[in-house]
Fold this sequence. Notes:
The chain is of the alpha/beta class. The chain has a single domain (8-235), classed as Spore Coat Polysaccharide Biosynthesis Protein SpsA, Chain A (Alpha-Beta Complex), CATH 3.90.550. Helix content is 39%, strand content 17%. The protein has 9 helices and 9 strands. The chain has helices at 19-32, 49-61, 75-86, 106-115, 137-154, 170-174, 185-195, 224-233, 237-240, and strands at 8-13, 36-43, 66-70, 91-94, 120-124, 131-133, 166-169, 200-204, 206-208. The strands form 2 sheets. It has a 7-stranded mixed sheet, sandwiched between helices. It has a two-stranded parallel ribbon with strand order 6-9. Helix 7 runs parallel beside helix 8 (224-233). The protein starts with 7 loop residues before the first strand and ends in a 6-residue tail after the last helix. Guanosine-5'-diphosphate binds at residues 13-15, 17, 42-44, 71, 75-76, 79, 96-98, 100, 183, 215-217.
Amino acid sequence: MAYEFESATILLPVIDEIQFLERTVEMIQKDCDADVREYLFLVSEKTCPESLKICQRLHQAQPDRFLIYPQKLPFLGGALREGFEQARGSHIVLMATDMETDPAKVKDLIAEAKQTPKQIIVCSRWIEDGGFEGYSFLKWLLNWIFQKMFAGLYGVKLTDLTYAFRIYPTSLLKNIKWEELRHPFLFECLVKPLNLGIPVREIPCVWRARTEGKSQNSFFRNFRYLRIGLRAKFYPQEKITKQERG
Length: 246
Ligand SMILES: Nc1nc2c(ncn2[C@@H]2O[C@H](COP(=O)(O)OP(=O)(O)O)[C@@H](O)[C@H]2O)c(=O)[nH]1
Ligand SMILES: [Mg+2]
């Protein structure tokens, strides 16, 4: 397990973000570039040419800091799982490039990870100074019910288990056996650590609906989150971690 904070690998999955991708990188660079080991662009055949051009330009300027990884496993979960394997920083920042994960908060996540490097720090939209802008009332309500249900099931005081804006010790993510490939992976990668008893802390963040590109998720796929959330609660630890026992 991690030790101390040395540097962060920022995972940046990209499909159709152009200006928002550039703004995301610029904001992180301005705030905390010295703490970043590498920016890892996760791209697929669905990534649009303009987005790819930005990744390539950054990579050409600084090949060891901006890396492009063409995913082999499908979908967002597949991209992130491969990103974990590539990461060389002591910690991994999980976020999007569509500005729904406010890049201004990356420095705060890193500052928290320096304080408690063995913990997972997550952003919450449900605590004071957090919030939602441009979220439909129905989704907001379902989200609230979902959070309450799963915080109860896992016996934690957390308020946001599904906002995939977090910092993790890299070794933890590399040591877990993952199963989901699509968006429910974002939930899996919190509930499995919770099953293992890893401490999780929250900081506030406001979610703002993107105004560039479009979501790759569908409303009905949200119901698949239930399945992994319920399953992972009852897994024995050896079904979750890669290390063989004794
Ligand atoms: N590499 C890669 N990135 C993806 C994929 N699906 C989504 N993303 C990116 O992951 C981030 C979050 O995805 P998004 O579709 O906005 O999810 P939502 O905010 O939960 O609706 C965005 O920056 C997307 O461009 C995928 O299959 N592969
Ligand atoms: Mg999004």
